[in-house]
Amino acid sequence: MEHRNLKTFPILTTERLTLRQLSDNDVQEIFILRSDALINKYLDRNPSKTLEDALKFIKKIKNNSLSYWAIQQKGNKKLVGTICLFDISAELKKCEIGYELLTEYQGKGIMRETVKKIIEYSTQTLGLKTIDAYTHKDNQSSTNLLKELKFKSTDRIDDTNSNLILFRLNISNKNK
How far apart are CA 172 and CA 16, in angstroms? Predict the structure, then answer.
């Protein structure tokens, strides 16, 4: 469930980053994110085969989502990654988070900064109390990031892919 009460796309900023709506100008970077074997190593999705595939994806996201952000460094319009919230449930006050980063930007603290901002947005603006993240059991970078941000691994395994482990962040008033 998308947070439909929002009228415009929420642009978020951190010290070094701007989280903004995808644009057609992001087609090259989206193509790389969605076709690069290293980036997609732990993701269960069909890779983009052409720039047209990437553009179709951008158009679909722009038309249907207020919670899928392009990550860019301030002072640079180039997309370096994406982050999204999905399966948002206002009733259960929970959602799932997903993210990806171009390889040349990995290991620089960009995703840590981005996820922290999205957690803040999720709790303070959307009023969510639980954020889930599935990560591949061998994706040590993602596992380390989630643990650093206080996500706890659960015993739950994804029904369709037994290699995916569920991490959960329960937000209480003391965490704010």
Answer: 27
